[in-house]
Specification:
The complex is a heterotrimer of chains A (320), B (156) and C (358). In chain A, the strands form 2 sheets. Chain A has a 5-stranded mixed sheet. In chain A, strands 5-6-7 form a 3-stranded antiparallel sheet, with helices on one face. Chain A contains 11 helices and 8 strands. In chain A, strand 3, helix 3 and strand 4 form a beta-alpha-beta unit. Chain B is an alpha/beta fold and 156 residues long. In chain B, strands 2-1-3-4 form a 4-stranded parallel sheet, sandwiched between helices. The longest helix of chain B has 19 residues. Chain C has 358 residues and is an alpha+beta fold. Chain C contains 12 helices and 12 strands. In chain C, the strands form 2 sheets. Chain C has an 8-stranded mixed sheet, with helices on both faces. In chain C, strands 5-4-12-11 form a 4-stranded antiparallel sheet, with no helix packed on it. The longest helix of chain C has 19 residues. The mean pLDDT of chain C is 95. Classes of the chains: A alpha/beta (320), B alpha/beta (156), C alpha+beta (358). Chains in contact: A-B, A-C, B-C.
């Protein structure tokens, strides 16, 4: 827990200079963290980093415009901050970043699947981290899980575990898990035929409850209350409980993030019914990387879809 | 807007007012015969085309969507088609992930004087869509599907 | 007590197939990482281990409900004259929800007074809701354990509560002990074999064991009036609600998964000359919920919206409907909240703030 103490010290050091420090605290059960907004030393003592600090605190930054805030960031969170900065959605001088070498975070769906018949996540009364293992207590028994088996997918391909922009960096930078993104997740999906993919979305989207948690959890969906999906004029979507409308909403979300999405995966994590909505954004990220050699949140400059060049050597236009 | 059963497919065209729309006119004036599957929506510039227009058409049952604007360096508004080129190319890359054949969507550049070229574009694209056949349509919400069924007699 | 009946697990699909001859049967099904109530596929075994992610309310109160459909037809004799035809949808078919949770069953108690004219003579009754409600039988599956997010005991419930259920089913060893609680329920289970005394005792033991896993209500006995007053007392305390809502995303997951949230929107979805009038779910967590025609919006901040959600459940609703919370303590809003906003903590903080002030 050395890292935790060091981060708490860094938070306490910056507290007097800022309106608040955004980080993580404990959630309603031992497997869940929650965003924490720290304004006092007492608050800072409740700070909890580590495997369960999943939320992306960059989400809240646009709300604090005009105030100086500090934010504790994982590598992926820093990418979101980077993108917000490059689009001028937040001001650099209003944000202070505290980075640390992230060791990866949990994927709750994987925990639930690993527990299977042994019980539900909500029955877990205690969690201990022992090296590479998680030791859970539920129904009076202990269950050992390999951390690697219940780590979020994005962490398994993480190239930027150390916040690439940070005003304070706590601890030693760690080696990235991967040196390039091979989009292996898309390859798995694309093993399906087009018909199967359409059927896949039909099935997955049919359980969408249209809560828009995916949108609201996205640090780059800055339109918030003024989303085109809920506008009456133009009226893009009906209120009908139809796959067509639900999938079209995902298209709205994804296309508006083309060249902007940093792949933090909060949309998918936030989905209460576990729809793999990140896939669409991954597909766009791959196109953007291939066409414009641009990685959102990392590369400086105007996002590729907000600019152009006279010649586009990577775009092969129709010969007819 | 009736679709000749089995003969015509539903193809939506978004055409720039300053070039391709005129090109289609030129083709008409020149009496270049074309397939009649295409339904044209005139827009002020290819840069005006929100990629959602295309997606809305495709998800609502269009079998193909064609976008046509001014040649690069020829935009009436100087740079609208440059933005369009990037957006449309990225959108085309998303279609297979949604399970939609990317050949159902194409974008081209046709100027107002290129009547013959327009004929060629419409011919080629219509043929391409016909090779793919009618697109599989996403199901409507049950209540809307029921309504459509009730309305069927009224349509005839 | 009614006769207990017993249904071996292996025969559950067959029994449900039988019911499907006279009812539309909804049952929990696993889809991805979620468990949702679906019209049951013939021959399938419902998910009985993991608790459903969503509540069963959409069976009675669909996400988008057709009130009627409309068609305009031009009169060829009079230019500009159009005839309007309205069509009523068909009446709902008799429906069974198999595997509802006890909190789901109790959740409908929050709907009932609102849609039944508040029990007051002269107030309009909502026939759309009432028809479905009367047409739906609930087979409640008793919970065997409590989750960390469960707090049904705060609202007068328990893991194996019989309130609102037509049948209480309890999983014992390799079968379900079924207890019919209403004539509707009796009709469902009457064909099943009687349960042995041992099986009945096992069910009873399961209920007691489940009860023991519930976390005790903090500061019990709970005083609903004190809670209602404490939440209302924070009405003008902007600082309080800003702090409580800091992590809230203002999405609608909590309200759409909630068994008691009953708010709706009405829209005409037309396509050319025809369309449907839909009643669809709405959520007070959305900005549009309170957007007025003038353009003014009294609840622009998420703090105001969260205040409404908590205030409505624990203060405004009880003050109108006999002191009953419009919360059944299922904990889905906590369990599925992407930011782990905990409604229990908000209520407790309001209570604590009230105690400090006094």
């Amino acid at each position: 827990m050395g890292m935790q103490k060091e981060l708490q010290a860094a938070i306490k050091a910056i507290l007097p200079e800022v309106d608040c420090v955004i980080g993580w605290g404990s959630g309603p059960d031992p497997l869940h963290g929650a965003p924490l907004f720290m304004r006092s030393e007492d608050d800072a003592n409740r700070f909890a980093s580590g495997f369960f600090a999943v939320n992306n605190p960059a989400l809240f930054l646009p709300e604090y415009k005009g105030k100086k805030v500090a934010v504790v960031v994982k590598g992926c969170d820093a990418r979101s901050v980077g993108q917000l900065l490059s689009e001028g959605l937040i001001k650099r001088e209003e944000v202070s970043l505290i980075g640390f070498p992230c060791q990866g975070v949990v994927d709750h769906d994987k925990v639930a699947a690993a527990l299977g018949e042994k019980g539900e996540m909500g029955e877990v009364t205690a969690v201990l981290e022992e090296g590479d293992a998680l030791v859970l207590t539920l129904r009076g028994e202990t269950v050992r899980l390999n951390k690697a088996d219940v780590t979020a997918e994005k962490c398994m391909r993480c190239q930027y575990p150390n916040a690439h922009i940070a005003d304070t960096f706590v601890g030693e930078k760690r080696e990235p898990v991967a040196t390039a993104d091979d989009f292996a997740d898309l390859a798995v999906f694309e093993a399906m035929s087009l018909e199967e993919r359409q059927a896949f979305w039909e099935k997955e989207m049919s359980r969408c409850i249209r809560c828009y948690a995916c949108r609201n959890a996205c640090p780059l969906c800055v339109c918030r209350d003024h989303c085109v999906a809920t506008s009456r004029d133009p009226s893009w979507l009906t209120q009908a409980d139809s796959v067509k409308d639900k999938l079209f909403f995902q298209v709205i979300h994804a296309t508006h993030l083309a060249g902007r999405c940093t792949g933090c995966g909060e949309c998918q994590r936030a989905c209460p019914v576990g729809i793999p909505v990140l896939l669409l954004k991954r597909s766009l990220a791959r196109s953007v990387e291939k066409l414009f050699a641009y990685r959102a949140g990392i590369d400086e400059g105007t996002p590729p879809l907000l600019t152009f060049t006279l010649e586009e050597p990577t775009i092969k236009e129709r010969s007819w | 807007m009736s679709v000749l059963e089995g003969k015509e497919l539903r193809i939506v065209g978004f055409l720039c007012n300053w070039c391709s729309y005129g090109g289609a006119d030129t083709a008409g004036v020149g009496r270049f015969s074309q397939p009649t599957d295409l339904r044209i929506v005139r827009v002020p510039c290819s840069g005006r085309i929100n990629p959602l227009f295309i997606m809305k058409a495709l998800l609502s049952g269009a079998d193909g969507v064609l976008v046509s604007g001014c040649h690069p360096r020829d935009c009436h508004y100087a740079e609208g088609n440059y933005y369009a080129r990037r957006r449309l190319e990225v959108l085309k890359g998303l279609l297979p992930t949604l399970g939609i054949d990317p050949r159902r969507f194409e974008y081209t550049w046709v100027s107002a004087s290129e009547g013959q070229r327009w004929q060629h574009v419409v011919d080629t694209f219509t043929q391409q869509v016909h090779t793919l056949g009618p697109a599989k349509r996403l199901p409507d919400a049950p209540e809307l599907a029921a309504l459509a069924a009730r309305l069927e007699p009224l349509r005839n | 007590m009614a006769t207990l009946r017993y249904l071996p697990l292996a025969q559950v699909p067959q029994w449900l197939d039988g019911l499907a001859k006279s009812y539309t049967v909804f049952a929990p099904a696993r889809e991805g990482s979620a468990v949702v109530y679906r019209p049951r596929a013939e021959g399938s075994m419902p998910e009985l281990t993991a608790r459903p992610t969503e509540s069963a309310k959409h069976v009675v109160f669909p996400r988008a409900h057709e009130l009627f459909s409309f068609t305009y037809k031009a009169d060829p004799a009079v230019v500009g004259k159009r005839d309007l035809t309205l069509t009523q949808p068909q009446d709902p078919t008799p429906t069974v929800v198999f595997g509802a949770l006890s909190c789901d069953a109790r959740g409908f108690f929050a709907f009932d007074p609102v849609y039944d004219g508040c029990g007051t003579k002269g107030l309009a009754k909502d026939v759309y809701y009432l028809k479905r409600r009367q047409n739906t039988a609930l087979v409640v599956l008793a919970c065997r354990t409590a989750l960390a997010t469960c707090f049904c005991n705060w609202t007068g419930g328990s893991p194996a509560s019989r309130e609102g259920a037509d049948v209480l089913a309890t999983l014992v060893n390799d079968g379900l002990v079924m207890e019919a609680l209403t004539p509707k329920g009796e009709e469902l289970v009457s064909g099943l074999a009687e349960a042995g005394a041992e099986q009945g005792a096992a069910a009873e033991a399961s209920h007691t064991a489940a009860e023991a896993t519930m976390a005790p209500v903090p500061g019990a006995p709970l005083d609903p009036k004190a809670i209602a007053d404490a939440v209302l007392a924070r009405f003008d305390d902007a600082t309080f609600w800003q702090a409580e809502s800091a992590g809230c995303l203002a999405c609608g997951a909590c309200t759409y998964l909630c068994p008691t949230c009953y708010c709706f929107n009405i829209t005409d979805e037309s396509n050319g000359i025809s369309g449907v009038r839909l009643r669809s779910w709405d959520t007070c967590m959305a900005s549009l919920f309170t957007l007025e025609a003038s353009g003014h919006n009294p609840r622009t901040a998420k703090a105001n919206r969260l205040k409404n959600r908590v205030g409505h459940k624990f203060s405004y609703y009880p003050s109108l409907h006999g002191g009953r919370f419009s919360c059944c303590g299922c904990g889905r809003c906590i369990k599925s909240c992407p930011s782990s906003v905990d409604i229990r903590r908000i209520v407790q903080n309001a209570l604590a703030a009230a105690n400090v002030k006094e």
